[in-house]
Amino acid sequence: MADTERVYTIPLGVVKSVPIYRRSNRAMTEVRNYLARHMKTPAENVKIDPGLSEIIWARGDMKPPSRIRVRAVKFEDGGVEAEFAGER
After folding, report:
1. Which of 21, 64, 74, 81 is deepest in the core (most CB within 10 A)?
2. Count of structural domains within the chain
């Protein structure tokens, strides 16, 4: 089985219903859960690149982006690596 690479635009609108001081934390959780669901692997196997984390946290904990473009690669062992796929 070859490595699978996909590009997703992940909506983070659900984060707006979370208390303002937890929004970026919740955005990171939503990215991990979205990729786990769409790449068919447990959330523990999803590794988020520090660059992607930096983009989500760029405006602090209170204002994460409303959507984010992510490139995800699934390896043969079931692990998934996610990195930022858009422009900064």
Report:
1. 64
2. 1
Q: Which residues contact 33 (CB under 8 A, 6 or more apart)?
A: 43
Return d(Cα 55, Cα 36) in angstroms, integer: 20
Q: What is the pTM of this model?
A: 0.91
pLDDT tens-place values along the chain, 88 residues long: 568 999 999 999 999 999 999 999 999 999 999 999 999 999 999 999 999 999 999 999 999 999 999 999 999 999 999 999 987 6
Return d(Cα 73, Cα 71) in angstroms, integer. 7
Angle at 42 between CA 50 and CA 12, to 5 degrees: 55
